[in-house]
Specification:
0% helix, mainly beta, single chain, 2 strands, rod-shaped, 26% strand
Length: 78
């Protein structure tokens, strides 16, 4: 699984009566999200027509974490 790491520089400045104190911190951020599952069922009647071919459109949310896209396909035959 691909995880994108983002770093952010945090710069703070404190002015005291006598001196000025500056801190520079590096923060490492890891995007997180919740797994969302979608199901699209396609019925293929192969008794009269073979081979079977179809197109399935997938709606991927716009707020997806980069690199986390995954599609799983399964088939059951009787």
């Amino acid at each position: 699984m691909y995880i994108e790491m983002i770093y952010m520089l945090l710069n703070t400045l404190s002015r005291l009566l006598v001196d000025i104190v500056a801190y520079l911190h590096v923060l490492f951020l890891q995007p997180e999200g919740e797994t969302q599952y979608y199901n699209k069922a396609v019925f293929a009647d192969l008794r009269n027509k073979q081979p079977f071919q179809t197109t399935v459109n997938l709606d991927i949310p716009q707020n997806i974490v980069a690199g986390s896209e995954m599609v799983e396909v399964s088939a059951v035959g009787m």
